[in-house]
Each structure stands twice: as structure tokens, then as C-alpha cells.
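Milestone M4 deliverable, item 7.
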Amino acid sequence: MLPTQPDDDCGDCIPAYLNHSASFGTKALSTTPFIATFALLTVLAYRKVFPLLSVQYSSSHDTAKSLPRPATSGPEPATQQVARRIAALTFSSTIALSAVLTELLLCEISNSFNPTARSIALQITVAGLLGLLVVAIPLLGISSAVSKSGYKFHGAQKGRLRLAWVLELAGYAAFLFGFWAIGTILPESTTIAESIKDQSSLFQACLDRLGITGVSLMALLSGFASVSAIWQTFGPKPRLVTEAEITRKQAGLDATIDMIAEKKEKLGHLGRKNAEIPNQGFWGRTVGSFRGNADSQEKQTLEMEMNGLETMASSLESSLNILRVRRGDQLRATTKMGRLSLGLSTIFACYCVYRICMTTFNVTRRIFSRGPSTSSDTDPVTYTIALFARHIYPSLDQESWAQQISFLLSGAMLLASFSAVTQTFHLFSRFMPSALHATKTNFALLISQISGMYVISSALMLRGMMPKEVGSVINSALGAGLLEPAWVQRWFEGFFILAVVATAAGIFLGRQISGATSWDDDTGWDLGLEMGKRS
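Output delivered:
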């Protein structure tokens, strides 16, 4: 019988599958913004950001001069292309998922979109980031290091092929051991046996370890960035850079790349000669073995020389970029915008000085007083922002939010001082040019690893600070966890001071060893590079 009143409830008349379909459609529609954000940022990072971070001098140089490629390296470009695409996809996915996680946290604070859709999207995002940060990126970084060491994952030499895979697995096993060992510093951490028995416990343990690793990395990078900004702003001013110096440096880099291309051609010619040797008898093979040993020795010599030249080219390229940056800064300093930027840099450097002093005072007082942390442990900048956040949400824990905002400002400090960090890192890389070359080859993956860990650390710290009526989705997706805001604040400040002391000591020792002039003006080391190039 049909209902006679217009305001009768007809919900009971609708089949269950139609209700489920309508609910599923609403949830799916609510996840559309997150899917769109992930797709857009993945494409943008894959096509625009990754090529900028992974560009190498050899590729651009070969394209510009159209140098011939060795014939023996036929399958190598295809393998390198596949590896580069996998690395680009991993980098893009990590950056996109980090952005989606940030978007989900903002939606959770503002209570936007469907809670069930947010919960599903948050669980998928966190699980995806966990797989990328713990499995994909470490494996790609280790395989790149193994390949740079001369051990290839393809080829006819089965012995070196097996050794490459052994090194890959051993490196990843060492990473997993170190990753799990970090959990011993966490309060009330679970054992390996307990985590394996319970999948949720294993997932939570991995999240906590990612969180504390991200906090430690950000503390170290923030301390390094603070000292770098102070040194580049208030330290000795570098001499004026002329276009002639940049041209001379570029000529040295081009000559080094030409030498690399020449040795590549010799290596290809040697490979073609060995491939053209016909099948011979017993005596021919006996005589050929001695010649083969000589050819293999020559091949190893060429590869060793190429590795040295590539390291030298990386150092020259980095030095050239620093000179171009200094030249651009010196030209901009004569304009209004340049003077404004210089003033902002000075203000930021003053804030870094204040942040270091406040952190040192807090750590010293905590060591000697052994008392609980209070709101005075944070500087007025973070405390003011925390007051504003509490004005929006009166139920928020002001002290916990002050600690969280202090951690977020550390990321802003790292971004604001990126140029100073780059220049200071170049100064330290003079002592270890091979470390600079290795860092540049995996720079994009390193950036994605730091970004993912930073966002997960922020999410884990936000989890315990949100009110129950606001943070239900975060708590259900991230679990209870072991990272308490007060404990994280103490850990962060300790690593921050450690990075500050280490960076300041490194700059002081570098000036004492190399001399103030060559350290500040970037001249003393170029002579050694050019002498090595001529030899």
C-alpha cells in the first residue's frame, strides 16, 4: 500500500542495495579532490620537477654536441632509461602522496568532506608512503650506489651479476636493521616477535620509526640550515665574481666532459674489438688469453679514469653553479628588489640566531633542572602562532601546538635558507668530492625521502594534539603511537644543537685547514682540480 501522507518516511521502501549505492557514490565523490591532487602533482613532479633535480652534465653536454655513443653500450641506455623512469615515478608518487597527506590533515582540522572518505584516503595514503619510504626508495638508492661502484645488474658475467645482487640485498638488510634499531630509543617500543605476530603492531612500529627518523633528519637539516644562513649573511663577504671567471670555469668543465666522452669512445672501441675476435683453436685461445688480460686491464683503467673525471666534473659543475649564484646575487644587490631580499635574509638570519640561543637555553635548563617542559620552552614566534590556533579551536592543547608549530617552522627554515644550505654544502664537499657526486645522483630520491618523512612526522605529532571530536580520522588511521609531543620536542632540540655544533665546527676547521681565502673565495681548490684534469 502506498503512503497517503506527503511527509511520510519512505526510507523503508527503498531497497538496501540502492541505499548502499547512494552511500558509495557519495564517498567516491568525496575522494575526487584527493585523487585529482595526487594525479596532478604526480604528473607535474614527473615532467617538471624530477628533470630539474636529476639533470646531469653529461646528458646535456652530449645532446648539445651530439657526441657518438659507444657501440658496446647498446643495451645500457635502455636499462638506464627504465631505471630513471622507475626513480622518477617513485619520486613523483612520494611527493604527490606527501601533498595529499597534508591536504587530508587540513581537511581533518577544518572537518571538510565525508569523514569515511577521508578515513579511506588517509589509510591508502599512509600505507603508500610507508611502502615507498621503507621499501622502494631505499632499494633504488642502494642499487644506484652498487651500479656506481662498477657492479651491474645485467650482463654476461654471472659472477659480478651475483655479487651485485648480494650487495643489493646486504645493503637493504643493513638498512632494515638500522631502521628497526632506531625503535629502541622510543618509549615502550615493541619487539620484533610481537610486531610480526600482529600486523597492526608492525604497521604502527614502522610508522613510529619513520616519525622519529623524520624528526631527527629535520632537526639535523634545520641546524645545518640555521648555521648556513648565519654564515652566508654575517660571515666574510666573497669577492666580486666576474663573467671571465665564469667563462673560465665553464671552459674547464667542458674540457673535462670532452675527456669523459673521449674515454667512453675508447672504451666502446675496445669492446667492439673484443666482440670481433673470431673463434680460435687451443693455441689461439691460449695466446688470446694474455691479450684478453691486457684488454681487461685497459678497460678497468679507462673505467677508473672515467669515474675520477666524473667526480671532478661534478665538483667543477657545483663550483660553477655557486659562482653563477654569487654573480646573480651581486647584480641583484644593486636593485630595489635585491636590497629588499637582502633585508629579509638578514631578518631571517637574526631569527636563526635567536632560535639557536633559545634552543641552547632550553636544553641547558632541561639538563640541569630535570623539570617538566613548560610553555616558556618555545620562542615567542611559535607561542604567538599557537595562541592564534587556540583562538580558532579553544579545545586545542596550546603547549602541544606550540611544539608542533616549532617543528613546522623548522621545515620553513630549511626552505627559506635553501640557497645558503647549498653553498655551505658545496664548501664541505670540497673535502669529499665523491660524496657530492653520489648525493647528486640520488638527489631527487633524497628530497622525496625527506619530504615524506617530514609529513608523516607532522601527522604523527598532530595525532595526539587534536581534540577527540576533530581528530577521530587521524587516530583511526595512524593508531595510538609512541611519539609524545614533549618527548619529540626534547629529542628534536638535542639533534638541532648537535647539528649546529657540528656545522660550526666544520666551517671553523675548514677555514683553518684550507685557509680563509681559498675557503671563502672558492679559488684554492680549483687549481687542484685543473691540475688533476691535465694529468
